[in-house]
Amino acid sequence: MPYHGATGVLLVLQDVTDRMLLAQEASQVARFQSVLARIGTLAVSDAPAQELMNEAVRHTARALEVELCKILIARDNDDHLAVVAGIGIEEDLIGKLTIEGGTHSQAGFAIRERVPVAVRDLRKETRFTPSKLLTEHGGIAGMCVPMLVEDRVYGVMTAHSKQVRDFTEKEQEFLCTVANTIATVLERRRRADTQRDFYHRLFMSAQDGIMLTDTDGRILEWNPALERMTGWTRDEALGQRPTILKSGKHGPEFYGRLWQAIRSGQPFVDRFVNRRKDGSEVLVWESVNPVKDRDGTTQYYMAILTDLSEREQMLEALRHAEQVKLVGQLAGGILHEVRNPLIGLGSLATHLAAQEELPQAARDRCRLIAREAARIDDLLESHLGQLRPQPFDLQPCDLPSLIDDTLILLRPNLTKQHVRVTKTIATDLPMVEASRAHLQQVCLNITMNAIDAMAGGGDLTVDLRPETRRTPGVLMTFSDSGKGIPPDDLQRIFEPFFTNGKAKGVGLGLTITHDIIERHGGQLMISSPASKGAIVEVWLPVKREG
Fold first, then answer.
1. What does the domain layout of the chain look like in residue ranges?
2. For the segment 398-407, what is each residue's pLDDT rounded down to a tens digit?
3. What is the pTM assigned to this prediction?
């Protein structure tokens, strides 16, 4: 341009330092915000914790323009710090290396003071010495900030450069924000894992069966109590539907009400008869509940099954006790009416047995009748005490002679019904401590039931042999070739007044028989194999315990 008659160049100088600083600051803020957004996205996702930490150190190092960045987590048992994530260090050290966290190190100093510690040149630092890890990887300048969670130090996060440099306050604030965010996410996940572990242990140790399904009814979880209750293992049940427990005892309308309730978000609670893997049935109290998300959407269905078998047995025992009480009251009512003619019958039989002009066989039978009348009188007196049972007068009892007396008494019935009797008696059979009169009642009841079951004739086998169970004892087995006992009736066989459709009797025989055997410390078992009649086993200890 012209200048005093000559041509010159005009230079305009402008100070743009502030503008460049602003641009650099804006660029830095943008980088920081991008890193925090990335970490925030990972934090709310299901990304593994290791991926979150790896991404954090990588993006933080890039944003701060440093070569080294790492996360150190404090160990519980000492002051060492575990290297759990890092950039700029050897990868095989991550997850394996620990460094000292004492106050002589930069990390330890930051933990103790709970403030960021920035160093321009570690070679000139006097407060602490650089770690061996930093020295080996060329770290010179850097920051170390504590990872704080609810006033607790979780660890430290570091950023180091391989050259001398200063770190601004904003850079320190950024590193603190990243470190605290990572610490908060890790702590929340640790607590969630702890809570999940707690709930898992509750799930595994619960005495009630617990089943979790998706909304289509596919089984997702199956706890050990349910394995014991049903016989189905967890591996067998997963992926199947709860119909594996279906017993056929409930109609379509029952399951319709169940699905209607849980699909509308309501629980369904009722008694279920379920089927075990082996085909047997189990009675349970089952509560089926929808498991909802925070927005109220049903995600799963959870069923809790309480086994009622033991409770039902207890209730059945109570019902049985009430029925036995009624038996005692009934015995008390009939005692007076029965004993008078019975005493007269016994007296007459005793008188006839003393008549020498009668044949000896007739006199022997009269004596047997007298003994039976006395025995029945004793039994009436004893069963009057159903509510207040009296102890038996236990004496050595010869079971073979007891069987002989039973068969003699019932010979007319056996002959009339065309029942053939076979006896098998072991030669080394011991005597048992028992009340002979009451055991006579047991044998009579069992034999009479067998005769009634063989209306058209048949075979009755009586077997006596030693058998040790809890203690040495004798097993008496009565097997008949009659019509057998239906399975449903077997379950009620000892109930008072259960007659199985018999035209005669009031259904007290086996109830009394069961009570007598139990009071002797023995066991009474009745089975009925298909098409093979009935088998009654009476086991008695040689010596009554207690």
1. 21-196, 206-307, 309-390, 394-546
2. 999 999 988 8
3. 0.48
